[in-house]
Automatic annotation (TrEMBL):
The keyword Cytoplasm applies. Homodimer. Mg(2+) 1 binds at E70, I92, D267. Mg(2+) 2 binds at D90, D93. It comes from Takifugu flavidus. Gene3D superfamilies: 3.40.190.80, Fructose-1,6-Bisphosphatase, subunit A, domain 1. Pfam families: Inositol_P. Keywords: Cytoplasm, Hydrolase, Lithium, Magnesium, Metal-binding. This is Inositol-1-monophosphatase. Residues 118-152 are annotated as: Disordered. Pathway: Polyol metabolism; myo-inositol biosynthesis; myo-inositol from D-glucose 6-phosphate: step 2/2.
Length: 330
């Protein structure tokens, strides 16, 4: 069968690599910092330039495709997922890191098509499942043989349902290219990824972020959740400063889980598939199905750990990313 989207994915990898080069060069220069929703929601000319470079290069090759780009949405473009091929771009995930030269910065490119698709993504890479054997460097598990090659029962669609066809996260200061194709596994620089096998949350590291909302009520909830989880007790809490890299750490097995409320679809789209295809699970913070537009996520190595975290979170619901879109899901 013709592989419809491999061309697009190859383009995403090369666009992310090119964008990473621009980001690295910009780090050597003075950065003019602007603010968006608040004084701690930062943006630079590099964010805007990189997003435009990626979008222009995609438009030249795929003129009919659509976009959700962080900086385009900030400039008033709609944030809508449809059945049309849609590139979901965060030109710099970790702008605050970039501004401060804190060395974790990612370019994130997700690609979604067929919003209503009924088939769950990564159905054989869900809760508690292990791959039958690692693929060699650069190899990918083929879709045709994927599920039957992996041990364990099929994942529950509730946790595995995704709309993303491929995801690319380039951690540009580490020079790590994380990639995933629906049903074909996740990779870092061509090496296959697998989530941690740890089943005990007491022996886990959990990643989260503090976000850019400084409303004291929200901050209280963030700290209450953090306190609950820290006191389970867990081995530790970590924050890379970028959702995409936190999630790639889950996919890599370095941390067992990441949770956050408040990030956006462009922070999550690519990395959600990378987690799922590495055998991880995605869940809403209240234990329901993961929803790309909801701005809430738990990404974990298995369902037990995800559910335990969900039981400790003081949940709240920021305005959805598609809230302003005509015909948005309720
Ligand atoms: O605006 P940026 O840099 O694209 O992304 C925002 C972000 O870095 O902020 C959160 C930290 O609070 C992360 O989870 C998220 O990825
Ligand atoms: Mg971001
Ligand atoms: Mg960004």
């Amino acid at each position: 069968m013709t592989d419809l989207w491999q061309d697009a994915m190859d383009h995403a990898v090369s666009a992310a690599r090119g964008a990473g080069q621009v980001v690295r060069e910009a780090l050597l220069e003075d950065r003019m910092v602007m603010v968006k929703s608040s004084s701690v929601d930062l943006v630079t000319q590099t964010d805007q330039k990189v997003e435009q470079l990626i979008i222009q290069s995609v438009k030249e090759k795929f003129p009919t495709h659509r976009f959700i780009g962080e900086e385009s949405v900030a400039a008033g473009e709609p944030c809508v997922l449809s059945d049309e091929p849609t590139w979901i771009i965060d030109p710099i995930d970790g702008t605050t890191n970039f501004v401060h030269r804190f060395p974790f910065v990612a370019v994130s490119i997700g690609f979604s098509v067929n919003k209503q698709r009924a088939e769950p993504a990564g159905r054989a890479s869900g809760p508690g499942q292990q791959r039958a054997g690692p693929a060699g460097p650069g190899q990918q598990l083929s879709r045709a043989s994927g599920p039957s090659q992996r041990a364990g029962p099929a994942a529950e669609p509730l946790l595995a349902f995704l709309q993303v066809e491929f995801g690319v996260v380039y951690s540009c200061l580490e020079d790590k290219m994380f990639t995933a194709r629906r049903g074909r596994g996740s990779f870092c620089n061509g090496d296959p990824l697998q989530v941690s096998e740890q089943k005990a949350i007491q022996q886990s590291i959990i990643a989260t972020e503090f976000g850019s909302d400084r409303d004291p009520e929200v901050v209280d909830k963030i700290f209450s959740s953090l306190r609950n989880i820290l006191c389970i007790p867990v081995h530790g809490i970590r924050s890379a400063g970028t959702a995409a890299i936190n999630m790639c750490l889950v996919a890599s097995g370095c941390v067992e889980a990441y949770y956050e409320i408040g990030m956006h679809v462009w922070d999550l789209a690519a990395a959600s598939l990378i987690v799922s295809e590495a055998g991880g699970v995605l869940m809403d913070v209240e234990g329901g199905p993961f929803d790309l537009m909801s701005r809430r996520v738990i990404a974990a190595n298995n369902r037990t750990i995800a559910e335990r975290i969900s039981g400790e979170i003081q949940a709240y619901a920021p305005a959805r990313d598609d809230a302003a879109a005509p015909g948005a899901d309720p």
